[in-house]
Amino acid sequence: MRTPYGKECFYYYQDFYRGRSVMECRLLGPHGGWTPPVCKDCPVPAILADNACPNMTLRGEAVSGLFGLGRRVKVTAYCRQMDRVVSDPHIGCSECHRSLQAILPPL
Ligand code: SF4
Question: Rounded CA gap, 87 and 66, in Å?
């Protein structure tokens, strides 16, 4: 679903059907301090576009910006297969890539 800032995000949900007015971020959850402006600079849509690894899970929290102004999303990624934190979620931990290279013949 598209966020209020026009980016496609798996975690964004809205429902305005028949007078409903629901907007939420399902990554931050109902108590995560989400408001629509948080989506503006959120890194999650770019991460999801760059890396579709099914083993990687994301966890997000809304943190205050510099001098307490504004809020932004801080993301941590975790690989369920390797059981470790992923340092760059745009790339992933790269262990799946190594496994595929061992199975597939070189081009
Ligand atoms: S805050 Fe980020 S993860 Fe949450 S709905 Fe907006 S773009 Fe998606």
Answer: 23
